[in-house]
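DNA/RNA non-specific endonuclease, Methylomirabilis oxygeniifera. Tokens?
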Amino acid sequence: MTKREQLLLRRLREIQHSDGVKTEHLEEVAASAFRLESAGIRPPTVTPEAIDSWRRFARDESLDQRDLVHLESIILGNGLRPAFDIQGDSFGVLPSLWQDLNDRRAMIDPLIRGIGRLDLTGHPKLTYAGTAFVCGERRLITNRHVAQLFTQGLGSGVQLSFTPGITPSLDLKQEVGSTAPVAVQVTAPVLILEEWDMAVLEIGPLPGNVAPLPLVASAPAGIEDRMAAVIGYPAFDPSEDLVQQIQIFRGVFDKKRLQPGRLKGVQQAESFGRSVQALAHDCTTLGGNSGSAVIDVETGKVVGIHFSGQPLIANFAVPTWALADDQLVRNSGVEFAA
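Tokens:
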């Protein structure tokens, strides 16, 4: 068995344990996907053959190569770590595996309105840089590696400037099936941290229905295996598997998605040549998700800023509570929840 296959089976065991997955859950997902396909929306990736392979996996029976292919399809697409379209600043009724999200819609929907896509004008290669979200009065959080696509310098204040010729802007909309923007001006870089992959930007006035997302200031107890949701703008990544990306996102990229999964506690990760204690999660992400809010579904608060990942191992986010201890961050205008 290859290293990738070993990682696949380990991840499936973790998901089976954290989510309490049963065969009937996959049958529900498959039925939901088939209805959507009939309406011309998306293909079903949890097939009857994949469900049979899951049964063999759950019974600890011997698996052949076809089973492994089927089991990987269960993690992807409309399976156990999906990506759901955001439309009308909300999401549709989700399968019962994600019932907590359905139940907390009233908490999640206002957060969706404060998450946007950082668009670029004048960049020689890119039309957008990544994801960002409102974190205070006229303040926006994203990743350092995202901000460095259009800024110069490290630190704060006069040490920072926009790259000449490149103009960033924020679009709080860009949903599947809609090109109507909700545009906000990005007026200045405020802070670009050295230790963490995090940056703060100044923005213009916001629409009246948009408020800062609540950022957790203290490390939550018992966070491992809590349901999480990454909300951002996954982009096509030529370095990742083409077929898998098309399965998950139906060939539609750069649009706002809700990507649920589980928090996996604090783990060591690399960030700008340093080893940091990052918040791990297993939500499906792509490059455009850099800067996405990682939300603890139980509380409806932001616990991390997604910045990187390793396929079939973990994705990583900057823990918000680590930022709350940084006086530079506090002075930059970032607000933290009680």
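The domain at 116-212 is CATH 2.40.10 (Thrombin, subunit H).
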